[in-house]
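Design job #97: recover the sequence.
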């Protein structure tokens, strides 16, 4: 059995200085007042950052130059610098590798579809969950990202869409917390980031809560806590297999919270939020793709979640040099057919970005 290198509370070391996007509306006013400025300057700053999507003090001409410098120095420290962008799918997918103030590398992926544009954000640098098939999991956890480091990934993507960096100008509509890291292991900052992302401008970025998905490998108590936040975000549980024996090795945190415990917590989330839970299932050749596992998956999901669930099968994006591979298409089709036949809605997730190493952690791992 895999040892559990689980780190739920990463050291605060390396977190960037305080930023406007770390703060609630009231905290922003207090911070501005502490600097000897009028409280309404907090609204002006927020308007620029969340409303106009700029962090450049030179663009904030409604604020006197002296105040601008002081406010920007104190509340808009540079957070993430682009190391490089890599595009594919005819430029409809763009992955960005960022460098944080302490040299930490993180990544986000912007995906443009005909009816929506989705950003996949990272919530931690690295990950402590040690899933053996995942590039990020191999490097361990470097540190949590701050709330503002998460929000800033979204702000820059929203600006890129507005400015037509991925074709025709458009709007960033959906956010998925499926990049590097286990979002619920950085709970407080992730929840604050969701609030910033979804509060209407100028308090936040004005994206609908219903268009935000928070994924987890199954930290059951944190799932229940998230339900009690009474937000409308979608929950996605990375289950990857319905049986504890295999899940103990595929998702080592399973030795702490079993499949039953995770699915009961997911049920609580579905009941509290009124939203269907997504079950993520990375289909891995000869590992978790057997017909009997499809049947067992449908059975267990029906028992715990009834109709309040949808399964996304994800063809595994193999990491270079890894023994893990995607299942052949006929095996995948049969798996999906059986889950549907078992009374649970199941589809194959469109996989974007294969040729640019867009599985979580691959770009950062390449450096
Ligand atoms: S699959 Fe997700 S939870 Fe598991 S190690 Fe990778 S990033 Fe972490």
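Job complete. Output follows.
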């Amino acid at each position: 059995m895999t040892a559990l290198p689980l780190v739920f509370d990463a050291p605060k070391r390396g977190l960037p200085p305080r930023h406007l996007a770390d703060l609630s509306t009231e905290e922003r006013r207090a911070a501005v007042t502490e600097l000897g400025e009028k409280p309404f300057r907090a609204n002006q700053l927020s308007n620029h950052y969340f409303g106009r999507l700029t962090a450049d003090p030179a663009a904030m001409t409604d604020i006197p130059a002296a105040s601008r410098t002081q406010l920007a120095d104190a509340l808009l420290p540079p957070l993430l610098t682009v190391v490089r962008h890599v595009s594919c799918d005819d430029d409809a997918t763009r992955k960005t590798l960022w460098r944080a103030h302490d040299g930490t590398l993180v990544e986000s992926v912007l995906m443009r579809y005909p009816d929506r544009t989705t950003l996949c954000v990272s919530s931690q640098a690295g990950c402590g969950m040690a899933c053996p098939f995942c590039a990020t999991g191999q490097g361990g956890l470097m540190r949590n990202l701050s709330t503002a480091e998460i929000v800033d990934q979204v702000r820059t993507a929203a600006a890129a869409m507005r400015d037509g960096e991925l074709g025709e100008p458009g709007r960033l509509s959906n956010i998925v917390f499926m990049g590097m890291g286990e979002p619920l292991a950085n709970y407080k900052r992730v929840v604050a980031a969701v609030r910033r992302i979804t509060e209407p401008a100028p308090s936040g970025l004005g994206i609908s809560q219903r268009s935000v998905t928070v994924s987890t490998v199954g930290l059951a108590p944190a799932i229940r806590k998230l339900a009690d936040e009474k937000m409308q975000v979608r929950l996605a549980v990375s289950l990857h297999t319905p049986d504890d024996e295999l899940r103990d090795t595929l998702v080592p945190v399973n030795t702490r919270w079993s499949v039953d415990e995770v699915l009961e917590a997911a049920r609580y989330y579905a009941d509290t939020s009124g939203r269907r839970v997504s079950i993520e299932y990375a289909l891995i050749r000869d590992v978790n793709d057997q017909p009997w596992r499809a049947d067992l998956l449908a059975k267990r999901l029906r028992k715990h979640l009834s109709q309040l669930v949808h399964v996304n099968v994800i063809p595994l994006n193999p990491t270079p040099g890894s023994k893990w591979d995607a299942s052949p298409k006929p095996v995948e089709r049969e798996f999906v057919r059986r889950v549907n036949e078992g009374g649970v809605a199941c589809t194959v997730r469109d996989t974007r970005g294969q040729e640019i190493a867009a599985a979580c952690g691959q770009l950062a791992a390449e450096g």
